[in-house]
Amino acid sequence: MDFLTILLTAFALAMDAFAVALSAGAVLVRASARQTFRLSFHFGFFQFFMPIVGWAAGKEAVQFISSYDHWVAFAMLAVVGGKMVYESFERERPKAKGDMTRGTSLLILSLATSIDSLAVGLSFGLLRIPIILPSMLIGIVTAGMTFAGMRLGERFSRILGKRVELAGGIILIGIGVRILLEHLS
């Protein structure tokens, strides 16, 4: 597989992470460098690691997972997106609002945005494509797009206020629905 194809695959896989980062940047408004790094690093790492897992897992394991992976991704994104939609309608924001770049939220978002990478890793294995270079490229592109998404989300939030949080939640739910529909059709 040529470099351009691997690069385009990396960008395609990073699109969900970019959309989630837009939402995260909008919610956090003034994300610290640490928060931006944390989200970019984790999304990049999961996108790097999941193709390796898929490549190593073999055909049987991924066939078992692929029968319900779309439901898992949908549920994860719907829960986080639903929480964002709900919070966008609150009259007063709580002072100690949750940080989606930490703890369970970070883990859920990292997993949900990288499930497709598992299947890509399996396909690379079936095609006998070495996995390390593509995985590294996928991880680096995802980390960069996550960083860009965080910064753009912050700017949108400053301009549009709480409506961006509502839009971000709807986007996450939409990504989950898209993943679900793609696998069910």
Question: Please, could you describe this protein's structure?
Answer:
With 185 residues, the chain is mainly alpha-helical. It has one domain (3-90, 98-184). It has six helices and no strands. The longest helix has 34 residues, at 33-66. The chain is globular. The model has no long low-confidence stretch (mean pLDDT 82).
SSE layout:
Elements: H1 3-28, H2 33-66, H3 69-88, H4 103-126, H5 132-160, H6 162-184
Helix pairs in contact: 1-2, 1-4, 1-5, 1-6, 2-4, 2-5, 3-4, 3-6, 5-6
Offer a concise description of the structure.
With about 180 residues, the chain is mainly alpha-helical.
Question: Can you give keywords for this protein?
Answer:
mainly alpha; about 0% strand
Q: How many DSSP helices?
A: 6
General shape: globular
Number of domains: 1
Helix content: over 70%
Find the count of extended strands (DSSP E, 2+ residues): 0
Strand coverage percent: under 5%
Instruction: Quickly give the structural class.
Output: mainly alpha
As residue ranges, the low-confidence spans are none
Give the SSE string. Answer: HHHHHH
Distance between the termini: 28 Å
Radius of gyration: 16 Å
Outline the biggest β-sheet. none
Oligomer classification? single chain
Q: What is the typical, i.e. mean, pLDDT?
A: 82
